[in-house]
Amino acid sequence: MPITSVETFSISGPTLLSLKRAGDERGWFCETWNARDWREAGLPQEDWVQDNYAFSAEVGTTRGLHFQAPPHAQAKLIQVIRGRIFDAIVDIRTGSPTYGKSICLELSSEQPQVFYVPAGFAHGYQTLDPDTLVYYKVTDHYAPETEGGLLWNGEGSAIDWPIRENVTLSRRDHDWPDLGALKSPFAPAD
């Protein structure tokens, strides 16, 4: 996975990696994860245990903001296979100097990038193109008993979603608490 750039943020932990595509008359090829390159870039050594696809047919489909609590907390490595998304994370590590702060960015299948989100963040995204396909790796298996969330459009997280009305949203995503009511299970990173 030849990494062409590593972008960090004012919130410690999340990282955006741009990747190299090799093309010829057949099309292109791109490594999306390689343990050696990951290590050489100085990124945390994660034990990826599960890969997921999420398909969304409609523009404005909003998923999140989700997390899994310890002992099944998940780091995620997110990429868009088809379409575009507005991706958002919120730091929910209690005691963190950036608690409640968010990072928002656009990910697209046109740009070979992966977004690394460590455990301790609520994560969600909104589709900007029809028939969007998102692929992500996680560091722990799905454990519904540890599932949690943060209200996607709550005032506390201050996320400026591109589409705020007529979104496609699951019933459970309507019912998560706002940041001010969240009892976070995460301690700040060491």
TrEMBL record:
Keywords tagged on the record: Isomerase
Keyword Magnesium: no
Pfam families on file: dTDP_sugar_isom
Known pathway: Carbohydrate biosynthesis; dTDP-L-rhamnose biosynthesis
Recorded catalytic activity of this chain's protein: dTDP-4-dehydro-6-deoxy-alpha-D-glucose = dTDP-4-dehydro-beta-L-rhamnose
Domain of life: Bacteria
Any one GO MF annotation of this record: dTDP-4-dehydrorhamnose 3,5-epimerase activity
EC number annotated for this UniProt entry: 5.1.3.13
Family as reported in the entry's similarity comment: Belongs to the dTDP-4-dehydrorhamnose 3,5-epimerase family.
Reported function: Catalyzes the epimerization of the C3' and C5'positions of dTDP-6-deoxy-D-xylo-4-hexulose, forming dTDP-6-deoxy-L-lyxo-4-hexulose.
Assembly notes: Homodimer.
Protein name: dTDP-4-dehydrorhamnose 3,5-epimerase
Protein source organism: Henriciella marina
